[in-house]
Amino acid sequence: MLSAWSLVRALRKAHAYRGAKPVDEGLRGYRAYEPPLRPRAFLDLTMWDVVYRVCPTRRDLWLRRREGVQLEPSDAMRRGAAIHRAFHETSRAVARAILSGVDPWDAYEAGARLCSRMCREDPYVRRVCRGFSFLWSSIALELGSPVAVTEMVVDGSPLGMSRYLRVDALFEGSVVVELKYGGFRRDYAVAVAGYAMALESFLEIPIDFGLVITVNGDGSSVRVYPIYIDDALRQEFIELRDEAIDTLLSDVEPPRPPSCPPTCPFRRACLGA
Ligand code: SF4
Predict the structure, then answer these.
(1) pTM
(2) Are strands 165-171 and 209-215 parallel, antiparallel or unpaired?
(3) Which one, 5, 123, 215, 269, has the greatest CB density within 10 A?
(4) 266 pocket-lining for ligand 1 (C-beta < 6 Å)
């Protein structure tokens, strides 16, 4: 069960790395006005454009941004969107209940009732939704108040990113949270670095830690991965951003790769399949 304690325990692990590998100040988002952070072009990139590539040649990025092709969401993408909505809405419901004076367990009930209404169609998402309600109320119980901002909008334009980047959550203590459906992947940690650098440029404070929260296929397991946002993750994000900019500025259409992932949401547009 996801709880305030499981998040604190995860963060302790990330803290252990900071002393050994401090972040290079030149890779902080508030240094976006100089290389290597200063982008070659300002193209309003989303995190999808930069990090969550589905096509090995970046043809997906080209199709979406240069040709205006709409992706066709898969079932997994739809369920991921429902899980994000549950995360955000339960956070608001529990915060509202706490601020109106009820105790955290009654606030949990308020969140759980919302889940029953909102996720009527999908029992898996409903179970995850109740887990989020428990998370928010347990954080409030431990710390005395709701402490997370969910779906925070951040201006990423100094880094060449969108002015409306949406961070899944920012916990007190400046911890960036990325929520994902499925197993852990390294690009989730790179996205956390990208959001942290955008926040650094926006808030002008250092951000060193993040959490990736993954929800597995049937909603039965929620795991937390601590992320120390070190130089390697920051550089990886900058390289991917530069590659995305180069792809979009080039007049050469990226070729099809030798094989396409079966889950690519551009298969119909690209392969007619
Ligand atoms: S269908 Fe294949 S070539 Fe087209 S975007 Fe997807 S992976 Fe790339």
Answers:
(1) 0.92
(2) unpaired
(3) 215
(4) yes
